[in-house]
Amino acid sequence: AIDTRRLRASSGYVAYDQGYGNTGSCESEITYLDGEHGVLRHRGYPIEQLATHSDFVETAYLIIYGELPNVAKRKEFGLRLRKHAAIETQMQKILEGFPTSASPMAMLSAMVSALPAYYPDLATNDFEKDLKNFDRAAAVAISKVRSMVAMIYRYTHGLPYVFPKQDLPFCDNFLHMMFSEPYQEYERLPEVSKALNLLLLLHADHEQNCSTSTVRMVGSSAANLFASMSAGICALSGPLHGGANVAVMQMLQSIHDEGDDGTRFIAAAKSGNKSTRLMGFGHAVYRNFDPRAKIIGEACDTVLKRLGIDDPLLHIAKNLEQAALQDDYFISRKLYPNVDFYSGIIMRAIGIPMDMFTTMFAIGRSPGYIANWKEVASNPKGRIYRPRQVYVGATERNYVPIAERP
Ligand code: ACO
Q: Might you report a single GO cellular component term (predicted)?
């Protein structure tokens, strides 16, 4: 990598890299991603090991604090999350100001951006002060985003809110808030909670993707954690980022509705036409298997089997994957399944409706946002993110009074 810090501003030198595809915007100790070889590690730990041995809360701790917690620290972190699980009554009113048909992501970003009003001591827009209260702010952010998503689901689906329980682990508490009816317990299957843990863990961080870079960019202006995360959630709402798993499910459903087993669709996907792309395949960075796709693909089989679900969309997905992996078009372009290829099928099995998929991604990505914001806030040599551009507009010209304009 070339360090261009010395070439800044006064030299007149501007490196043009459309969409920053090959620009390192920061130094980071959080996540290592090697797209060529399909490697993903958080704080040095391979994603495969974390997926097998860890859970979402422990991995969140690792990503945020840099080390796996010991028993005492894990307990303390869990207690902090539990303490901040409930959503303030006044905040419900913010939610209820939205029509129930509004986008859940718009509701989520609005609620997160309102957090500084409820926790002014955690969001002073002064790095030094905000870092002193960082542990509490991080717990508020992770725990509330999870509870907000459940509350948004209940609100948009016309259901009464279910409040968190102090004695439930993080993912079980989410399932309780989503699916319990008042006075009637949600029957918690350990498989569902395990699948949810895995899904969130696999989304916990992914280097400088669009929304995480947004968090860093906003944070670089000394904006507080909640403001930065709210901006990240807006970036995540775009269909090219957080919405890709919805596109995969729509594609699988339409293949199913047309009575195709995937064969006809694969042929169409090779046309080079963007509208018939094989959604869930290809990635801006991976030129190999997305390691998360391998894990989630295998988990799909186990989870659906354990839950006794035979989802025809999973069969279609498997057919598509097999066909693509043997097809020269996909092989020569290094197009492999990405995490979105199977994540929707798992969410559907858990009972999460498609309109909530991207909000689930936001819960999962919260630790990554928090850790990246912390890196920005803790960097004594940090500077505001301020990229340049290559100007291609009009050259200098003189002002023309309105009456003289053609
Ligand atoms: N299906 C069919 N052809 C594809 C696909 C696909 N999914 N993806 C890329 N191609 C083809 C392109 O048509 C192009 O072919 P050409 O060389 O003959 O012109 C070639 O592969 C390279 O395509 P690019 O668009 O340059 O690849 P890039 O790396 O820029 O794009 C992207 C990556 C946007 C993810 C793309 O692969 C895609 O659209 N995939 C489907 C959408 C998707 O799954 N997005 C989720 C990404 S993961 C995430 O955001 C969490």
A: cytoplasm
